[in-house]
Design goal:
506 residues; mainly alpha; three-stranded antiparallel beta sheet; two-stranded antiparallel sheet; 18 helices; 11 strands; 47% helix
């Protein structure tokens, strides 16, 4: 057995012994000390976890496991959030011993922080704060500045919590560039960004970012005219759309709408941003096609959802939205295609006539698969390519029932041989019509086919719901049967007052 494997087994055994031990004979002072020791050990193990991830990266194991990046490997195999995975990889980049092009071990970028993390004196939350401060150091600063900041921040992190450490970060940045003379366009370009977060339980998402001065000026100019009071108000049917200074608008109508407007500035800017995006799509300023799909908000829903105007619809860009909102967007669309309910004139079977999937096929695949079919992948169909389950070079057909969407990283993993992923279209069973991905033998010696259900949680929830309802109904039926049997088998309760005397026969 390799030494490292044996040590981890010993660690697991020690943890089991700790879990089974009692704290009844431990005094209060020792309990408080054990809490601190426990935290130190957890932090030190976090550093060892980074070293294990470094080995996964150096050996390219994340690709062999079917993941396009180390980040996706961490999210999937360790079952952590996107933010947690990002924090770990940033800490790995700062505290890990990377290799040069010649294979030589390089010292960590933040040696003081790496040492403190290995000792368990600081945690990954401290590292997050320290790396954010490091990213804000102007690129014109001398190399020694990074080492000074690393040592000074680490010294403070040994005695402070992450929240207090942020205050230290602001202080050290003020000392590094007190007059802002070192910050230039290169720093602003490095720090620029705009991203939308995942949808929450209310299906809303948070946008975060840093705008450079020019972008900020453009944003505020546009908001001044599109987010003016009374403009683009979805709650006011008489609210004008577009810019407040548009000559086509009646000033009296705008003034009246502004008087009725009770929205905050943030809400007005949200509604203006929504109106701008709708205008861009309606005037086709983004072209007519993206990855074979029309540049529109493409939505899939069932006929029952449409009839009841209730439930959750799904878009080709991976967004869930209430059906009532989807219906509102559909009312402004140019055309739509009903899939699975009624037939259309689109040709979905091209055999060998065409190699690439056509627009009608891509829309049908969106309705069926919604996104990449690789196990666990959540990339929407607007990010995918269309894969032939039987390779075109091997005589595969461009027919709707043998095509499947796959995002570029996962599409590249498919190929012949035992060291490549393979795909097969299932033709029977509960998953008939779905694509199964068969892993290489070094990932799964038994090569069990895997189905991606990440885009169809509504289906799995419905199946669980129906199963629970069926179990409860069965339990009720069995209880009813037991009660009826008990009533039939119980002896009758006879009272003296209710029984007539038998007649006396002479």
């Amino acid at each position: 057995m390799p030494v490292l494997v044996g040590l981890y087994r010993d660690l697991d055994a020690v943890l089991q012994r700790i879990a089974g031990a009692s704290a009844a004979d431990v005094d209060d002072v020792q309990v408080a000390e054990l809490v601190r020791v426990n935290e130190k050990v957890v932090r030190a193990l976090s550093f060892q976890g980074l070293r294990r991830l470094q080995e996964v990266n150096d050996r390219g194991l994340f690709r062999k496991a079917g993941h396009s990046t180390l980040h996706r490997f961490v999210m999937s195999e360790l079952r952590v959030t996107r933010g947690d995975a990002s924090s770990r990889l940033k800490a790995l980049d700062a505290a890990g011993e990377l290799l040069s092009m010649q294979g030589e071990a390089l010292p960590p970028k933040c040696p003081a922080a790496a040492q403190a993390l290995a000792e368990g004196a600081i945690g990954l939350a401290h590292m997050d704060v320290m790396l954010k401060v490091r990213d804000k150091i102007p690129h014109k600063s001398a190399p020694e500045v990074y080492d000074v900041v690393d040592m000074w921040m680490t010294d403070n992190a040994r005695t402070l919590g992450p929240t207090e450490l942020e205050v230290c970060g602001r202080e050290v940045l003020a000392r590094v560039d007190p007059d802002g003379s070192l910050t230039d366009d290169a720093d602003r370009k490095r720090n620029r960004g705009l991203s939308d977060g995942p949808q929450g339980l209310d299906m809303m998402a948070k946008i975060t970012g840093n705008l450079d001065p020019a972008t900020l000026a453009l944003f505020r100019t546009v908001m001044d005219v599109w987010a003016a009071p009374g403009m683009n108000n979805p709650d006011d049917p008489n609210s004008p759309s577009g810019a407040v200074d548009d000559p086509a608008h009646d000033a009296a109508i705008i003034e009246a709408a502004a008087g009725r407007d009770t929205r905050s500035r943030a809400q007005r800017q949200h509604d203006a941003f929504k109106a701008i995006l709708k205008t861009i799509l309606e005037y086709k300023l983004l072209g007519t096609s993206h990855r074979g799909l029309p540049v529109q908000v493409i939505i899939t829903m069932t006929k029952q959802q449409l009839d009841e105007a209730a439930g959750i619809a799904h878009t080709a860009s991976g967004v869930d939205m209430p059906v009532k909102d989807a219906v509102e967007l559909a009312a402004r669309a140019d055309w739509s295609l009903a899939v699975f309910a009624n037939h259309s004139a689109d040709v979905l079977y091209f055999a060998r006539a065409k190699r690439t999937a056509q627009q009608g096929q891509r829309l049908a695949l969106f309705a069926k698969d919604r996104g990449c079919t690789s196990p666990g992948c959540r990339n929407p169909i607007s990010w995918t390519e269309i894969h032939h389950t039987t390779a075109w070079a091997d005589g595969g057909l461009t027919d709707i029932d043998v095509l499947t969407p796959a995002c570029p990283p996962h599409h590249k993993m498919i190929g012949p041989g035992e060291d490549q992923w393979q795909t097969v279209m299932l033709t029977d069973g509960p998953d008939a019509g779905r694509v199964a991905w068969i892993p290489p033998k070094y990932i799964d010696p038994d090569q069990h086919p895997r189905i991606n259900r990440a885009h169809h949680t509504d289906h799995t929830i419905e199946a669980v719901w129906q199963h629970i309802i069926a179990e409860r109904q069965q339990a009720l039926d069995e209880r009813e049967q037991r009660m009826q049997l008990q009533q039939r088998s119980a002896p009758p309760i006879v009272g003296s007052e209710s029984v007539d005397e038998a007649p006396h026969l002479e």
